[in-house]
Amino acid sequence: MIVVSDTSPIHYLLLINQVELLPKLYGSINIPEAVRDEMLAAGAPVILQQWIQQPPSWLNVYVVELPTNLALMRLDPGERAAIQLALQIQADLLIVDDKPARQAATALGIKITGLLGILSEAARLGEIELPVVLAQLMNKTNFRASPKLIQMLLTHPDIGPS
């Protein structure tokens, strides 16, 4: 499976000590240089900077062709490059949480998931205890999701979000 990720899902997985779910679920993860650069930026969280300075073997960094799609120009550089990379390498899945980026990717025919989709899939496969990990996510980070969505995940993890 060819999977591309944006910055924020990786960041949140690092914060809750679950980044190893990515290779367990998908094998390798591909990111564009722009995402790597966001992770290395002076204002980026230290945990992210330290992690990307010695990236795991399952993370691949790609040079991305400049996007020609005007709809992508309103997105931040990392999201724009992640969508462009997904198109460039014909990815099976794009991991992205930002709503406008999700909408743009979907409009381009790219299958998407987000952090909650990853956690739901990991729970379905028995890799994590979803209530425990969701509690960590909601209590130890600034990740936000509607209480209704969290309740749906806890009640019906088998139909988790994309």
| Overall number of structural domains | 2
Distance from first to last alpha carbon:
16 Å
Q: Biggest β-sheet, characterized?
A: 3 strands, parallel
Uncertain stretches: none
Strand content: 5-15%
Residue-averaged pLDDT:
93
Output the CATH class name of the largest domain.
Alpha Beta
CATH architecture of the largest domain: 3-Layer(aba) Sandwich
- The value of Rg in angstroms is 15 Å
Which structural class do the helices and strands define?
mainly alpha
Query: Numbering strands along the chain, what is their spatial order in the largest sheet?
Result: 1-4-5
CATH homologous superfamily classification of the largest domain = 5'-nuclease
**Total E-strand runs:** 5
Write the element-wise H/E pattern from the N-terminal end onward. Answer: EHHEHHEHEHEHHH
User: Judging from the principal axes of the Cα atoms, what is the shape?
Assistant: globular
What is the number of helical segments per DSSP (H or I, 4+ residues)? Answer: 9
How would you describe what is shown here?
The chain is mainly alpha-helical and 162 residues long. The chain has two domains: 112 residues, 5'-nuclease (Rossmann fold, 3-Layer(aba) Sandwich), CATH 3.40.50.1010; 44 residues, no CATH class. It contains nine helices and five strands. The strands form two sheets. It has a three-stranded parallel β-sheet with strand order 1-4-5. The protein has a two-stranded parallel ribbon with strand order 2-3. It is globular. The two termini are 16 Å apart. The mean pLDDT is 93.
